[in-house]
Amino acid sequence: MKELHNVNVAMRTLARELLESGTVAGVYGWKKGSRPTLTSPLYIQDAAKADRLAYDQYAVSNLSALLLDHRNNDKKRAIFVKGCDSRGVVRLLQDQQITPEQVLVIGLPCPGMVDEAGSLLTKCAECRFPNPVMADQVLGGVEVSKQPSAPTGVTAEAARKVGVGSRAGERMAQVAQLEGKTAAEKEAYWAEQHDKCIRCYACRNVCPACNCRDCIFDTEKKGWVSKAATSSANAFFAITRAMHVAGRCVDCGECERVCPMDIPIMTVNRKLQQDIEALFGPYDAGVDETVVPPLGRYQTDDPEEFL
Ligand code: SF4
Ligand code: SF4
Ligand code: SF4
C-alpha cells in the first residue's frame, strides 16, 4: 500500500528527529519480524535505529501497555498509535499510571490488521475506533476522532472474506448466544474454557487496563490466591481479571488475541460492557479522557439497590 509506505518513511524521519533533538528518550513502534507476516513491537533509544521502524497490516500489537515500563521515570517517550493503542494511552492517563508530560502520542491511520492468510482479524473486524482518539501529532493524514467508524483501507480480498464494517454490530453476538443457555450449560461452558488456562498471564501482561502496580496474582503471601492451574483457581483468576477491567477495558481485543489456549476472553469483557451500559448508559472506555468511567464515580442515584 502506497499510503503505508509513505507513513513508514514519515515514522522513521520523525523518530530520528525526536531522538536526535532529545525531545524524547525513547520511541515505541513496530519492526518487521522473522517472517513477512510478522510485525512486532520495537522500542528504540538510538536515532541510528530509526530505520528499523516498520508499520504495515501485521502491526497488530497494542503498544500502550509497554508505557508502564516507564511509569516511574519522568523522561518523555514517543509512541505511535492506531485507534486501539490510543485508547490504551487514554486508559493509562485516566488511571494516572502516566502523565501527559511522559508521553508524546503520534497517530497513524489503521487499515485493519490481517492474519497470515490475509483475513482481517476478528478484533479489527469488530473495531469501532480505528482512528486515534487522541494524538499530539499525526502522520498519513489520519483524522483524530472520537466518533465510531470502520477500519478503512483494508485489502479488497480481506474485505470480501469478513465483510468489513458489518461486524461491529455483532460484537455482542457471542454474549447473546451464551445468554440463551441455561445456568448449568453456562457453567459447563466456562468450566471447559477455564480448564484450558495455563496461567501464563499473557492476557494480563498485554492489557493497558490491567495496570495495578502489584498484581494479586504475583503475591508471595500465602492464602491469597492459588497459582495452581486448577479449574477453580483458573476461574477465580478469570473472574478477578474481568472485574478489575470492568468499565475500564478499552475493547482492544489483545487479551483474547494473545491467549495461547483460545479462551474467549472478550465474551466476558463484552458481557460486562453490556451490563454496565444497561445500568449506566452508553459508554466507550478510553475514548474521551474527560469522561470518568461509570464504576469510577459515585452518584446518589446510581442503580445499585444496596447503596
Ligand atoms: S482493533 Fe481497530 S485500531 Fe486496533 S488494529 Fe484493529 S482496526 Fe486497528
Ligand atoms: S492468556 Fe489465556 S492461558 Fe494465559 S493466563 Fe490468560 S486466559 Fe490463561
Ligand atoms: S481486557 Fe483485553 S480488550 Fe480490554 S483493554 Fe485489556 S487487553 Fe484490551
Automatic annotation (TrEMBL):
Gene3D superfamilies: Alpha-helical ferredoxin. It comes from the Bacteria. GO terms for molecular function: iron-sulfur cluster binding; metal ion binding. Residues 187-218, 240-269 form the 4Fe-4S ferredoxin-type domain. The keyword Metal-binding applies. InterPro entries: 4Fe4S_Fe-S-bd, 4Fe4S_Fe_S_CS, Helical_ferredxn. Keywords: Iron, Iron-sulfur, Metal-binding. This is 4Fe-4S dicluster protein. It comes from Heliophilum fasciatum.
